[in-house]
Amino acid sequence: MALKIYNTLTRKKEDFKPIKKGEVGFYQCGPTVYWTQHLGNIRAMVMADVIVRTLKYLDYEVNFVRNYTDVGHLTSDEDFGEDKLEKGARREGKTPQEIADKYIKIFENDVHNVNTLPTTVSPRATESVKEIIKMVETLLDKGFAYKTDLAIYFDVSKAKDYTRLSHQKQEENIAGAGTGDVNDPEKINPADFVLWFFKKGVHQNAIQTWNSPWGEGFPGWHIECSAMSKKFIGETIDIHMGGVEHIPVHHTNEIAQSESANDKNFVNYWIHNEHLLVDGGKMSKSQGTSYSVQEIKEKGYKPLSLRYFFLQAHYRSKQNFTWDAMRASQTGLINLYGQVAKLDSDKTFLEKIFSFKGRIDEKYKKEFVEKLEDDFNTPQALSVVSSLLKSNLSDKDKLATILDFDKVLGLNLHNAKSNAPKIFSEEIIPHNIVMLMEKRKEARDNKNYEEADRLRNEIEKLGFEIKDTSEGQKIFKK
Q1: What residues bind Zn(2+), as annotated (predicted)?
Q2: Is 222 marked as binding a ligand?
Q3: pLDDT for the residue 440
Q4: Count of structural domains, the chain
């Protein structure tokens, strides 16, 4: 079976054929770094990580590029409003550069916590202004763009099959474009989008600006990804990934400007991840549901439990985050660690060196690969893990196989012994007890011994006894 990818452009699964044999150029639209990224954005990063890990597992060499937007992304997500970095700078009394540095650091710590592999390169838009200007010049020279007193626009009427990604009628594609704060009387078509803003009008006090052949200003959001993907991958990309919200505007505009400038197909396979809901609704800062990885940790959950939660839904499916679901995911992961830990019966370093090593079972690996090759189906891949653990294979073969699978899952199963509670019975510890154990461990790690004692008493009232050993907490039923 060959790897099949659901291509948003064609609305069907297609056999994956890379431009260069054994190599993949993969571009993901990265975060606008003016705020801490919420769990929906982190889910997108985990889904991209699964794709990268799968491609590597299938022996592809992956050039994975994910950008940072640190200029030009306006609060409307279209061509009116305030630059988000400047909004963040005003909010915190910092420069836009300081804001970008701060939130890139937080983002990189968050994605590290959920065990995503590093990118090949993570360019900032502000580091590619030279390439952006060059692409705008090309579009002007070829007649795809025009200049007004306020900006340089891309003329969508000149683009070939402009809405083929969104499948929308052009008049519906960018509702409201050309209205709001930058209503430009010289704009030709309502859907025309900005390639370069001048330091004029509502942007006369813009902080981040550069000199250009046409005047001082800053790039529009859409042109940035086109320039960066060309710079770090090439004129044609194997795979481009982003959220479904980017289909009608951002990615539609990327296609138009890239193909007009380069005279080549821009992307061969478009991948779009669905949204993460919270309690069945949209994440909202105003309603306090725009949760972050730090908030997950503060409530006693391990970031890898969040990753395990994300793996339980397909990237093209909406997923609903609740605290009950988070508790269930952490319990499930800890129990998985417990099952994997029991497979490793070697007790000493010498035994590990000289004992028989298990073999990766080809039957289960074939099933695992088939699930992944079906458009990166992680829920089905996890079902293979479950079947493997229930099988009649030897413990050593199970362990070797599941550790091989973890190259894709990224759950750190090789550290299962240190991650799992030391359980001396086959009975699964109830999730509320597991949660109390985790909270108690965190309290002890933070030297909050009063809280640790309180949690011990709570555990004992529920019929369990907990002991602290050199190997960590051990739990017994009374």
Answers
A1: 29, 225, 250, 254
A2: no
A3: 86
A4: 3
